[in-house]
Amino acid sequence: MRFQISLFIGLIIPFLVHSQVASVRLTVHIPSLAENKNVYVAGSFNNWKASDSLYRMKKEDATTYSILLPVFRDVRYQYKYTLGKWDEVEVALTDSNIKNRTFISAGRKKKVKDTVMKWAVPKPVAQKNLTPQLLKINAMKDSVLNGLQPKLGEMLQLLKAFTINLLQDKPDTATEQRIVCEVNSHLKDVHVRLNDLFHKIFETLTPEQKQKILTTINTPGPDNDFINKLGAVFNNTMK
Question: Which residue, 5, 224, 229, is CA-closest to 237?
Fold first, then answer.
């Protein structure tokens, strides 16, 4: 189980740097999909999360999907389309990997049209036996994340309203303040739930497991690698 603590970076950034906000509309034509499949875009704008609910694309018709991305202006971004997993990412007709797609968010509004030729087909993997401790942690995590889904949807709508307002010739200050207040309220609730989840998770750890994690994260290294280091040692400790 991996902990992604950057859940809301994509939501918070546009609120912090108003002058740099722009938007890019991605439209992609794809091979036909099963009804239970969703199309996502993953890239440098969301830390390459393959199934980020905030970057799930809207279905326009059977083979066309689109999404409006809030981004920084005049920045080069890389991205790919997925079906929610990296083993179901877009590939070439020969099944070979393709290079990352790119766009530069020049100007306040930009439109990009792409075509996916084929999706990778995941290979069957053997089911791993999970320890009772990890099963308990996964159950707690899933319960909290399921409860947060409606909240994420509400925050996504607020982000959309915030972006639309900023893209107007004369953004309305009162509208912006109202949206920011609502977002802050949602973030407080999310923080409380995640804080409670992390307390419960760490209460399941034995003293030996805590010491192993503590020793690893105290090992000198780049500060910006802390999240990856914590996720890796947590996974190894749970095995």
Answer: 229
Paired tokens of 163:
């972006």
Q: What confidence tens digit (pLDDT) does each residue in 215-236 have?
A: 888 877 665 566 667 777 777 7
Q: Are 66 and 75 in contact (CB under 8 A)?
A: no
Q: Produce one character per residue of 133-169: b if its CB has 16 or more CB atoms within 10 Å, e if not.
A: ebeebeebbeebeeebeeebeebbebbeebbebbeee
Interval 18-58: pLDDT, tens:
445 788 999 999 998 877 889 999 999 988 999 998 899 99
Contact of 190 with 8, CB cutoff 8 Å: yes
Residue pLDDT, tens place only, 199-215: 998 899 899 988 988 88
Are 57 and 28 in contact by the 8 Å Cβ rule? The answer is: yes
* Exposure string over 47-69, b if 16+ CB within 10 A, otherwise e: eebbebbbbbbeeeeeeebbbbb
| Structure tokens that stand for 22 in this block | 């722009």
DSSP 225: G
**Contacts for 51 with CB less than 8 Å, ≥ 6 apart:** 40, 82, 84, 85
